[in-house]
Design a protein that fits this description.
Strand order of the largest sheet: 1-3-2
Number of domains: 2
Helix content: 25-40%
Radius of gyration: 22 Å
Number of strands: 3
């Protein structure tokens, strides 16, 4: 199983199994990284530019997604950060309280700490969201991200407590009732 730099488990054997697409790939299969950040790697940017900025990991030369020439791991500038606001392990959804310093229910969890090579030092960032309770279990034991589990009862209670406070803030109370001076 993949390990974090401190030696704890990240809960997966292959982080690329949790990748739908790279954050830099457009809907047309073009590489935005080469256009927007090409000055950092001119050789890569020039190669992508010569190919119409086509991403070889997303689409083949004919534009067919099934004909991709690379795996995601082959791209030196790959990044995939999930934006779904739910725990990938138990499905708990986030409930953020506006103007509150409460700790979020969900935390980013990094699946990949692997360096591409020792010479370029590039890391592939692959992150998902885990609730605090699943995050602790994955790092603190042999729990896996693909385990079929229900949300921890404490997590559900915390989420519902936030939901209740949110609902009470939305309730209407007339000024006459709030400031009754009789």
């Amino acid at each position: 199983m993949e390990k974090a730099p401190g030696g704890t488990s990240v809960g997966v054997d292959d982080p690329y199994e949790y990748v739908d697409r790279c954050d830099f790939v457009t809907d047309e299969g073009k590489c935005r990284w080469a256009r927007e950040h090409g000055q950092h790697d001119p050789e890569f940017a020039n190669a992508r530019s010569a190919d119409g900025f086509r991403c070889p990991a997303a689409v083949g030369p004919d534009g067919d997604p099934d004909g991709a020439e690379w795996d995601w791991a082959d791209c030196p500038h790959f990044r995939c950060r999930k934006h779904d606001r739910a725990c990938v392990r138990c499905g708990l959804t986030e409930r953020r309280m506006a103007h509150s310093d409460e700790r979020p229910l969900l935390e980013e969890h990094h699946l990949s700490y692997r360096e591409r090579s020792s010479e370029d030092g590039l890391d592939h960032e692959i992150t998902v969201f885990l609730c605090r309770w699943c995050h602790a279990k994955v790092h603190g034991s042999w729990a896996r991200i693909d385990d079929d589990v229900a949300p921890d009862p404490e997590a559900v209670a915390e989420r519902e407590g936030r939901r209740t406070r949110e609902q009470s803030e939305l309730g209407f109370e007339s000024a006459a009732d709030r400031y009754d001076d009789s």
